[in-house]
Amino acid sequence: MARIAVLCGTGMSALASEMSDSSDFKISRVRIDTDWGSVPSSIVSTEFGDILVIDRHHSDGKLRTPPHKIEHRANVQAIVNSNPDIVMSINSVGSMIENFPPGTIGISSDVLDLAVRPWTFHDDDAKHADRTSPFDSPASKICRKALESTQVQTPSGLIIAQCVGPQFESPAEIDALEKLGAHAVGMTLGPESRLMSETGIRHVALACSSNWAAGREPGDPSAMIDHHAVDSMASSMRGSVTNCLLAILKSIN
After folding, report:
1. Mean pLDDT over residues 50-59, rounded?
2. Which of 9, 122, 175, 204 is the most exposed place for a label (fewest CB within 10 A)?
3. How do 86-95 and 26-34 pair as beta strands?
4. Which of 53-62, 135-144, 217-226 has the lowest mean pLDDT?
5. 227: how many CB neighbours lie within 10 A of its CB?
6. CB-based burial of residue 252 (10 Å sphere; 0-12 exposed, 13-18 middle, 19+ buried)?
7. How confident is the model at residue 19, as a pLDDT?
8. Quick one: which of 53, 56, 49 has its CA closest to 18?
9. What residues does each domain of the chain span?
10. Percent of the chain with pLDDT over 90
11. Long-range contacts made by residues 35-38, C-beta under 8 angstroms, separation at least 24?
């Protein structure tokens, strides 16, 4: 049976529960043991296959692991252990470009990750993974087609800049990242895409525009970024994300 694994975060902690409630899909909760700890996960069983959902922050309803403290190796190894056909990263991002306003989901095509900390499964013996095309083109096209039925525009070819957080970026940092070629900024896709490149598993990434990047709010460049508003905006896109997941499952079958 087909299986998709999902790595999600801001606004998506209820993704598995919402899929189950809205479509009567069966849901089960499991923990997957890895070399870097146990990973809480949910499996949503549909008529087309299973969807394994991992909240990368391991939220328990009270505490939420901040982005700079996430053990990405545990999350990705948990996915590898589940033997999926494809992995989807869902990332809340701040938009730098006009045609990617908050409330829109775009298709990531590359990552601009200049963070200092390395992420690899191979600390003892150097192994060099190719990252020329980090995201699966056929799956990206399927997601774009699914999104075009619910959105006025679906930006593709997005370059996502990686910042470590947990603070949002400054306007000067956003200006610099845009000059380097980025279209949006987030705090989690960089490590995930690096580790995924070492697995050989197909990887697709959806960028959920949850806010304007610092200094880019139309008409009010001094507008502050509020995480509660960001989380609320991201959560409004769960239905569209589900449509993409089901479209990919159907394509596998």
Report:
1. 92
2. 122
3. unpaired
4. 53-62
5. 13
6. middle
7. 85
8. 53
9. 3-252
10. 85
11. 35/73, 35/74, 35/77, 36/71, 36/73, 36/74, 36/77, 37/71, 37/74, 38/74
Tokens 């394509």: give the residue.
251
Q: How many residues does the chain have?
A: 253
The structure's pTM equals: 0.95
- Alpha-carbon gap, residue 149 to 157, rounded angstroms: 19
Looking at 21-25, 130-134, 141-145, which range is the least confident one? 21-25
User: Across 82-212, where does the E strand assignment appear?
Assistant: 86-95, 105-113, 158-162, 184-186, 202-212
Sign, Cα dihedral of 83, 88, 90, 96: positive
CA 252 – CA 89 distance, rounded (Å)? 18
Alpha-helix residue ranges (DSSP H) falling in 68-133: 72-81
- Do the beta carbons of residue 186 and residue 158 sit within 8 Å? no
Segment 66-95, tens digit of pLDDT: 999 999 999 999 999 999 999 999 999 999
Quickly tell me which residue has 């328990």 as its tokens.
Answer: 60
pLDDT exceeds 90 at position 117: no
